[in-house]
Amino acid sequence: MGLSQALSDLAAALEQRVETAPDLPRAERAEQLRRHVSEYLLPRASDLSAPLVVVLLGSTGVGKSSLFNAIAGARLSESGLIRPTTRRPVALVHPDDAPSDAENGPLPGFSGRDQLDVRIDQGITSGVMVVDAPDFDSVERSNRELAVELLETADLVVFVTTVTRYADQVPWDILARARQRGVPLLAVINRMPTDPSEEAAVMADYRGLIERGELDLQGAFGNLEVVSVPEGALDPATDGLQRQAVEPILDAIERLRRDDEERRSIARRSLDNALAGLPEAVERIAAEVEREQQAAASLRQTLETSYQAARRELNREIERGTFLRSEVLRQWLDFVNAGPLARYVSEGVGRVAAGIRNLFRPSPAPPAPEVREAAFSDLVTSVVRHADTAASRTAAVWAEEPHGAMALAEEAGLWGVSSGMASQLDGELAEWMEEIGDEIQAIGAERKVRAQAASIGLNVLGTSAILAVFVHTGGLTGAELGIGAATALLNQKLLEAIFGEGNVSAFVNRARARLDRILDAIFEAEQQRFLSALGPMAENTDLGTELRRAAHAAARPEPR
């Protein structure tokens, strides 16, 4: 795989991470690296001869702007007692190197482009852009963000500190990122004591810190490592450091401006170091993704276990008909077991066909609608109860895990069943009843018992079929064999008397299968609420693997 393709793949994987990160800090971390890859590495890899970007970084008040003015030979960057002194980045460039609106110029894609104060100097040689970055420990967050972003675009970093601040923690945090990036560094210690022994002690201590921090100083500007600037070496005319005090830096920058080969060498070194550092930079993000995936897998398992248990218990209630109130079964049993309808069950349709029209005239209206409505109500109540139990059990476990707790905070309704589930199920059951009625009519037509079926009534047969789905003797034990078994037996015989034994068994199985699909969809929708609240984490992904693969491919590309 070529370098450009590997970097493009890595940028795409990082963009996916930005979009799917569960919180802002992790998204910002991925976005910072994505910008570094897409807006520094890709452009630099495509053109090593583009102007070298030298960024001056340092804490507030260390003399960074004074060094910039010394390099420029003019008062271009504000210095003084008011903090922060550098409120916006200032760039010194030749006209040919001035940043444009195009993405292929110096500082490509730099989000603070509109804040960049570009100072053009036709008297300098093209090839190097020097940028005075805002203070990275500024009290203003936007300044800190711009300074860190400029670090990502730098080919070289000149790190400025003072004899009293070189051991501060914040600068070393920034330098750790520079080390991770592999960008060459030059250190400047300002306001050094003039006593040689004191200066030597500071330099020895600072080099020790550099060594422990594993920072790459050797060779950034030839053999230049650390430049010492004595206390009071100021030039009032430029509001900068005295040029002779920083002459090694001025000479090195001028040499880079005039020597295209050395400039390209620095650019290649910076690029190669940055590429080599990609696996380490990506590893934290990839490891985060994998930890999130492990946490999400555990949360999904809890979710599935809770709802599967609730669904199995609901199935047992449906198979036994135990969710039905006894008065519902008693009302239907009394109706089927009384009067002319009982004759269908005991004698068969054929023996009473001649008097079929008179069978129900003296009898009261069958309670089919009331029984069916009550049965559906009992079923809905049972479904809601089990789904509510599954939701509360899932939420209780999720609340103990950070990502689960975050999802619950986003959607407090996850602690119980969704508010619209009962009405949705009512509608689904009404459609189910219509399908049962249509099938009863179709079976009656095939068996040429349309008249007998019509005489008994579609409502009666439909209700009987629904109860046949809910109640049968196979799952009943002990005391349940009483009213439940009697109802199941009479329903079965009534339907068989009209449609035949084989047809009834297959018909009831089809009706139950349709009901199962309805209930499965309801439970699936209830679970989906949790997954939606969990967000992109809920999706299985190989993003961690893809990030590592692309980072390693970019770090070890095919020969360019």
Number of helices: 19
- CATH class identity of the largest domain: Alpha Beta
How would a crystallographer describe the biggest sheet? 7 strands, mixed
The name of the CATH superfamily of the largest domain reads: P-loop containing nucleotide triphosphate hydrolases
Radius of gyration: 40 Å
The first-to-last residue Cα distance is: 11 Å
**Domain count:** 2
Average pLDDT over all residues: 80
Work out the strand percent.
5-15%
What portion of residues is helical?
Answer: 55-70%
CATH topology of the largest domain: Rossmann fold
Quaternary state of this entry equals single chain
List keywords for this structure.
560 residues, 19 helices, two-stranded antiparallel sheet, 7-stranded mixed β-sheet, alpha/beta, Rossmann fold
Which helices and strands, and how do they pair?
Blueprint lengths: L2 H18 L3 H23 L5 E7 L5 H9 L17 E4 L23 E4 L7 E5 L8 H13 L2 E7 L6 H13 L3 E8 L3 H17 L13 E5 L3 E2 L4 E2 L5 H12 L1 H17 L1 H43 L5 H11 L2 H9 L20 H31 L3 H9 L10 H26 L3 H7 L1 H13 L12 H17 L1 H34 L8 H13 L5
Parallel strand pairs: 1-4, 1-5, 2-3, 5-6, 6-7
Antiparallel strand pairs: 2-4, 8-9
Description:
- By secondary structure, the chain is an alpha/beta fold.
- 60% of the residues lie in helices and 8% in strands.
- The chain folds into 2 domains: 51-261, P-loop containing nucleotide triphosphate hydrolases (Rossmann fold, 3-Layer(aba) Sandwich); 293-382 and 415-518, no CATH class.
- The chain contains 19 helices and 9 strands.
- It has a 7-stranded mixed beta sheet with strand order 3-2-4-1-5-6-7, with helices on both faces.
- Helix 9 (278-320) packs antiparallel against helix 18 (501-534), helix 9 (278-320) packs antiparallel against helix 19 and helix 10 (326-336) packs across helix 17.
- The N and C termini lie close together (11 Å).
